[in-house]
């Protein structure tokens, strides 16, 4: 076994793990800097940016791992929200749709890079699609789990679409703009060569 190769792999993994910790911490801090906070959950923040960046820089495996860990941290901190669910299946749905799936999908952004000749376009499309997948999780959660909060006379589907879209659409637009700015000004940071 080549000792230099082993040391290089350890160095690379240590670098990635450090990057994961840094991006989770950054996403956590950004989740508390709210441009707008919705009355029954959801907000406009820059929280998704570090998670998308990990997916773009290091691919699906590391991106989804980073995003999932962040989702678990958010779940632990917001576990009281799960307690509002009336049944065990609803609690499980809340854990999956509002936390685990909703954040983990943000780490998939790197999947779309190879589909485009221009990496910057791939990054923007990947960010938009991952944001849309997160919106889908929120929409399904609102429709299936939180329908009782819809105003009287409103369709639950329509209410979930409007409510969740009102903060997720700005998050997606802001996310795409920030990723484009980072990709234009620091492409070496955003598109690190994947091992």
How would you sum up this structure in a few lines?
This protein is mainly alpha-helical and 195 residues long.
What does this structure look like?
By secondary structure, this protein is mainly α. The protein is built from seven helices and two strands. The two termini are 19 Å apart.
For the termini, the CA-CA separation is 19 Å
Task: Please list the strands of the largest sheet in the order they lie side by side.
Answer: 1-2
Specify the helix fraction band: over 70%
Characterize the main sheet: 2 strands, antiparallel
Radius of gyration of CA atoms, rounded to a whole number: 18 Å
For the secondary structure, the number of strands is: 2
The number of helical runs is 7
Strand content: under 5%
Low-confidence runs (pLDDT<50, min 5 residues)?
none
How would the global form be characterised?
globular
Protein structure class: mainly alpha
State the order of secondary-structure elements, H for helix, E for strand.
HEEHHHHHH
Mean pLDDT: 92
Helices, strands, pairings?
Elements: H1 3-31, E1 36-37, E2 43-44, H2 48-77, H3 79-82, H4 88-104, H5 119-144, H6 156-185, H7 187-190
Antiparallel strand pairs: 1-2
Helix pairs in contact: 1-2, 2-4, 4-5, 5-6
Task: Give me some keywords for this one.
mainly alpha, globular, about 200 residues, two-stranded antiparallel ribbon
């Amino acid at each position: 076994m080549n000792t230099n190769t082993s040391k290089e792999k350890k160095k690379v993994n240590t670098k990635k793990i450090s990057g994961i910790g840094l991006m989770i911490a950054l996403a956590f801090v950004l989740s508390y800097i709210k441009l707008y906070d919705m009355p029954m959950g959801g907000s406009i923040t820059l929280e998704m940016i570090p998670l998308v960046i990990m997916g773009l820089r290091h691919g699906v495996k590391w991106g989804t791992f980073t995003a999932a860990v962040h989702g678990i941290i958010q779940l632990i901190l917001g576990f009281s929200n799960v307690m509002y669910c009336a049944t065990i299946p609803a609690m499980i749905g809340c854990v999956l749709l509002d936390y685990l799936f909703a954040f983990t999908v943000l780490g998939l952004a790197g999947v779309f890079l190879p589909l485009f000749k221009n990496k910057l376009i791939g990054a923007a499309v990947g960010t938009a699609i991952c944001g849309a997948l997160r919106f889908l999780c929120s929409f399904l959660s609102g429709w299936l789990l939180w329908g009782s909060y819809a105003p009287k006379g409103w369709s639950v589907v329509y209410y979930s679409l409007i409510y969740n879209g009102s903060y997720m659409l700005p998050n997606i637009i802001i996310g795409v703009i920030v990723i484009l700015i980072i990709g234009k000004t620091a492409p070496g940071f955003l598109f690190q060569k994947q091992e």
